[in-house]
């Protein structure tokens, strides 16, 4: 039997080495050592890691690559970023949003990032960004899964037309119900918005992903309401709370009550390390809080935790390059969580965990899964995070859609090697 593609001598995230991966009809047909069949193309992985594609479960594609428009965020704060976005929204055009989003998707594909959940602001009565990203979703469908969240950036109740606009966006085909309860005028309004948004999702059979408690205020406790509404409405397994940064300031006694509620409700958590550590704690002098939610504690309890990128060169964050290994690497440093097990988990937090949160079908490296995977210049997941490894090949439905040369440095030092590959520095037992 002739296959479309065979990747030879691959290491897999689960620790198996010397594996061949054969592809037929856009799906994985075999994963085993020594596949002897012919293929239209053969790639020698040379013992390097082959992993399922990266997944970003929290992003804002309507704002991406807009850095400096109409001005820069001088304070670096979340609130100035929101104000800046408010200044930019009236200036947006349909074509400009599409062009920036498509350029970002090009960058994402080059990084092996083939699935993105993007929040899209519905507080512009034109729903310009919604319509633009729905078009982008269709245009990139052959090579990237784009899931859209109806996001009332200015507050579901605080913005005069957000209630109506959110329903309009869902009617247009937006996939997920979003919200931002901590940005409502009062805590009571925030809790009411959580209830209303969850009821909409329950009635429509949709997923829920709320920006929740993205604050340094320990009394911002909307995740508690979100967990309760999830149970009340039978939404278990369909709900995510994003950011949850107020949890870094909560007292331990309250958290000891809160986390079991999340676990009972089956609510997933999405932390955004790059953004959380730069936007939070801005009012602190010293000691200064790190700004991340309680990732180790949630993991220990069995709450699904994923890592998102959130922003890339926009009013909130002037850095970023669609690199989910950068996100994982930052989480390892910022939490901190430097055990070998935790570093390995950080790789899962940008692959398999967010894929589950998005409900991606056919994701993984098992026989029968979609032939979507990435060849990395690293020996294993821990090394991939350490190196933020080069993506040597990106495969979508069995077709190589992006390639890059290995990162190799040449040296001109007497008595020393002529070349250096950082991937060769892996410890003998990095797992």
Automatic annotation (TrEMBL):
Keywords: Hydrolase, Metal-binding. It comes from the Bacteria. InterPro entries: Amidohydro_3, Metal-dep_hydrolase_composite, Metal_Hydrolase, Metallo-hydrolase_Enzymes. SUPFAM superfamilies: Composite domain of metallo-dependent hydrolases, Metallo-dependent hydrolases. GO terms for biological process: cytosine catabolic process. It is an enzyme of class 3 (hydrolase). GO terms for molecular function: cytosine deaminase activity; isoguanine deaminase activity; metal ion binding. Its EC number is 3.5.4.1. Residues 41-401 form the Amidohydrolase domain. NCBIfam families: PRK07572.1. This is Cytosine deaminase. It comes from Kaistia hirudinis.
């Amino acid at each position: 039997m002739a296959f479309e593609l065979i990747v030879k001598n691959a290491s897999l995230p689960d620790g198996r080495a010397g594996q061949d991966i054969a592809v037929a009809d856009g799906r994985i047909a075999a994963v085993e050592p020594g596949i002897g069949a012919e293929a239209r193309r053969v790639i020698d992985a040379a013992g390097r890691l082959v992993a399922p594609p990266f997944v970003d479960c929290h992003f804002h594609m309507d704002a991406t690559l807009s850095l400096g428009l109409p001005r820069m965020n001088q304070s670096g704060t979340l609130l100035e970023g929101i104000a800046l976005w408010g200044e930019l929204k009236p200036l947006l055009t349909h074509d400009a949003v599409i062009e920036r989003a498509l350029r970002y998707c090009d960058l994402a594909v080059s990084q092996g990032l083939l699935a993105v959940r993007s929040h899209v602001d519905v507080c512009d009565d034109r729903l310009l960004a919604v319509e633009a990203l729905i078009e982008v979703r269709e245009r990139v469908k052959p090579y990237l899964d784009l899931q859209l969240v109806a996001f009332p950036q200015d507050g579901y109740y605080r913005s005069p037309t957000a209630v109506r606009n959110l329903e309009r966006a869902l009617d247009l085909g937006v996939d997920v119900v979003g919200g931002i309860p901590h940005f409502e005028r009062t805590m009571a309004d925030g809790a009411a918005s959580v209830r209303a948004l969850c009821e909409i999702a329950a009635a429509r059979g949709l997923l829920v992903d709320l920006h929740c408690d993205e604050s340094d205020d320990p009394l911002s406790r909307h995740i508690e309401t979100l967990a309760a509404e999830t149970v009340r409405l039978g939404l278990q397994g369909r709900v995510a709370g994003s950011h949850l940064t107020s949890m870094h300031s909560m007292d331990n006694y309250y958290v000891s009550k809160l986390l079991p509620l999340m676990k009972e409700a089956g609510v997933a958590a999405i932390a955004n390390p790059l953004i959380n550590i730069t936007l939070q704690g801005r009012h602190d002098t010293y000691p200064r809080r790190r700004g991340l939610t309680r990732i180790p504690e949630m993991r220990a309890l069995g709450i699904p935790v994923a890592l998102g990128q959130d922003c890339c060169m926009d009013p909130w964050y002037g850095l970023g390059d669609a690199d989910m290994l950068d996100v994982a690497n930052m989480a390892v440093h910022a939490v901190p969580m430097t055990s070998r097990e935790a570093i390995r988990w950080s790789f899962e937090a940008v692959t398999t965990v967010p894929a589950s949160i998005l409900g991606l079908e056919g994701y993984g490296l098992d026989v029968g899964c979609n032939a979507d995977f990435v060849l990395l210049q690293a020996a294993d997941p821990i090394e991939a995070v350490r190196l933020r490894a080069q993506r040597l090949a990106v495969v979508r439905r069995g077709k190589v859609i992006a390639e890059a040369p290995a990162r190799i440095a040449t040296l001109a030092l007497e008595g020393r090697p002529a070349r250096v590959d950082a991937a060769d520095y892996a410890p003998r037992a990095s797992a």
